[in-house]
Every structure is written in C-alpha cells, then in structure tokens.
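Protein: Copia protein
Species: Mucuna pruriens
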Amino acid sequence: MKVKESEIVKLLIYNKSAINLGKHLIVRARSKHIETQSHFFQDQLNKRRMDLNYCRTNIQ
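Structure follows.
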C-alpha cells in the first residue's frame, strides 16, 4: 500500500526562538546538542514537506 504525500504538515509552535532555530539552523556553543535533532526538521522544511508557524499560547 502506498501513501500519498500531498499535504504539508503544519506545526503550530508558541516559541519564536524554536521556530527560528528550526528554519535557520545556526550552530552555537549553547545549542550544539540540538544540531543533530534539527537536521530532520531542516530537511523536511527544505523539501516543503513541513511548515513551522507561530501560534499564541492562548490559541493552542
């Protein structure tokens, strides 16, 4: 059985710093441990399979 990948997964995130880290992977000494975990998200964002959007806390 084949699954179609027709829609972009939209993640609603309430932390703007997390969104920026996901969209613009910048390695710093304090965030170096996050680098390996972020590569998956960076790859999916580049392939337009995923989108990160800001969502206020009271809307979640």
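Remarks: The chain is about 35% helix and 15% strand.
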